Amino acid sequence: MKSDPHAKSLASLVSSSIHLLINNDETNLHRKNHETHPITFDHFNPASALTHSSYFLTNQIHSLPNTKSVTYMALNHVITIDQETVLMNTQMKQSPKLLKKSAGKSSCCIFRVPKSLVEIKKEAYQPQIVSIGPYHYGAKHLEMIQEHKWRYLNDMITRTSKSLGVFMNIVVSMENEIRECYSESIDRYSSNEVAKMMVLDGVFLIELFRKVGNLVDIQQDDPIFKMVWVFPFLLRDLLRIENQIPFFVLQKLFDESKPDTRRDNTRTIQSLILKFFSYVVDRKPEAVLTQFENIDGKHLLDFVRKSFIGTKDRNSRVDGTNEPSFKLIQPATKLVIAGVKFKVNQQAESFLDIKFQDGLLLIPQINMDDFYSSFLLNCMAFEQCYFHCSKDITSYVVFMGCLMNTSADVDLLSQSKIIENYFGTDKEIAKFFNDVGKDIVFDKKTNYLRGLFVELNEYCKNGWHVNWAGFKHTYFESPWAAVSAFAAFMLLSLATLQTFYTVFPYYHKRD
């Protein structure tokens, strides 16, 4: 690239002018203070010199030809418009790093959490004890478990008698597919670093699943299992959207590490994962093993998420051109006034199985604790970022948020055994659901609960059951209210009888 002669002239002029100004100021300072003060450069102020000489520099700069074509970034840094254009052309050809242009593909499935969701509960998305994948790799506070990954890798290599190079080469062959899975560029990691990361994290997860599944013996004093605080944090960290590796990497490493003749040769990684998380998920693992043994998720979070969604058809039951307009439902306390009754759905296989029949709203029980709140938030973040999946968890959270507007609503659902509160106060649960529903995209037309929303709103319109429910709520909600209503009814009855017996003899005599 050729340099601009006018830019060179300007730089030379500025340099020589500043040099002249420094010499002049030092000379004047020496003349003024040579009798009383030693000469030191500390007395000289370059900023003052430049200020006093700004008029001189401005006139000299403007005297250069074609100065309008020059962009003055600073006195010592001058870029022409042509040079700026070249820089812009170079930047236009660069690919985005923070959100790759391929992030909309179905192959891209591991995302950074949007800022709007992070602000709701930041700690729900940040790993607390272990890093999985590149986003939090090398974080200082995660070094403790990082050291144990090497121990688990050594256990697996020793047990299978296969060289580490076998597993490394498997991952290297899938490098391009692995990089495509991340929405943020991981080019800062070399091929070797990516391979090391995937093998170390993948084998660590597989060894955990095998140990919990009783396929591999747990060392007697293994702190991951002996220290009671470690395992719960580990469970939550493994289901954070930013803390994932592709599921196909786990599958390949699992298949390669299978022994030729051992008891775990027939077990799938899916069955081991379901067994692993059954300690915090309140459902019978045997009932779901047969359904999800061969389902593949995009990663660990997506697989567990799919195990709740299942294979059932959850499409809206409202069809046709005359379907009512969609509206959100009222809170639980107002639904009760409108005649809706709440009951736990004991037959549900998933907390998503919500039904409404003849005024009875059947909702599966959910244990609101740190695990479920974190799991719901990360599933929602995944559904908000990944276009190619259903949004059932988002629909569920929106529905429950509608029901639990205040602490009184939470208390009503708790009394119905629908909510088991291990999260905090009723007010905190209501705030949680209110906050998570603020800045999310919710599809009113395709969500799996659309039909239920419409049916509930239709039921709550004015009708005899609504009026009767309102009457019961007003006059029979408490024993004292019931006594007062009964006393009023008796007084009204006695007054009617008195009127009757007063008027009846008069008309009877006339007849």
TrEMBL record:
Pfam families assigned: DUF247
Keywords, ordered alphabetically: Membrane, Transmembrane, Transmembrane helix
Transmembrane segments: 480-504
InterPro entries reported for this sequence: DUF247_pln
Name used for this protein in its record: Uncharacterized protein
Taxonomic classification: Eukaryota, Viridiplantae, Streptophyta, Embryophyta, Tracheophyta
